[in-house]
Amino acid sequence: MRKVLATALVAAVLVVLFASAQGTAALWRAEGTINAGVVTTGVWGLLASSGGDKPVPNFEFASLDTSNMVPGQFVQAPLTLSNANAKPVTYDLAGLGPAIGAGQGPDSEFAHSISVRLTKIADPTACLAQETIGGNLEYQGGIDSGATFINGPRTLSAAGTAGEAEMFCVRVMVNANMSVSASGGQIQLVLNFAGAEQ
Q1: Is 27 a member of any domain?
Q2: Total count of domains within the chain
Q3: Residue 11 domain-assigned?
Q4: Tell me: the pLDDT tens digits for 13-41?
Q5: Among 33, 28, 80, which Cα is nearest to 52's?
Q6: Are 72 and 165 in contact (CB under 8 A)?
Q7: Which residues form the domain of 130?
Q8: The pTM is what?
Q9: Among candidates 67, 47, 194, 168, which has minimal Cα distance to 116?
Q10: Positive or negative, the Cα torsion across 95, 79, 194, 162?
Q11: Per residue in 176-197, pLDDT tens?
Q12: Residue 18 domain-assigned (yes or no)
């Protein structure tokens, strides 16, 4: 009986050690920094673009230049989401997150000082730099992996039909009361969208 108990105890310790090692795998990863944010829509047919850019599933949002922002300042740029499917799609915002800034230090402080606003607009000129935005507010808040549209999931018509695309003004703001400890912080803002064909 004692030998069986000792074997079970050793097996339990090995399971705990193995599980602990699996839990720290994220600590060994590294990511590079880019200035532009990324809009990820997946491969199910929702495409993203801005201005004259070609619509793609993973869109690098270069026109939303957040470099050299100071407290109280914001930048904004239009983002078009379009349906490439032969059937309508329903989609929702599926989180906002930084690729950098998850730990301690300036990156984390800076990530916590950012606010994001998505407003539905009809014309890209409604989203010119430093303009007041008119339209339906669809999201306002900080970086949040659980962020969703305020008014719930949205629907786009089948590709090639009216209503196959819609445009948002994406505004990124640095809080006016940002901590000095956030100086020099960097993030790569990632906007995720998820959905399905109807």
Answers
A1: no
A2: 1
A3: no
A4: 322 222 222 332 322 222 333 345 555 55
A5: 80
A6: no
A7: 36-197
A8: 0.73
A9: 168
A10: positive
A11: 888 888 877 777 888 999 888 8
A12: no
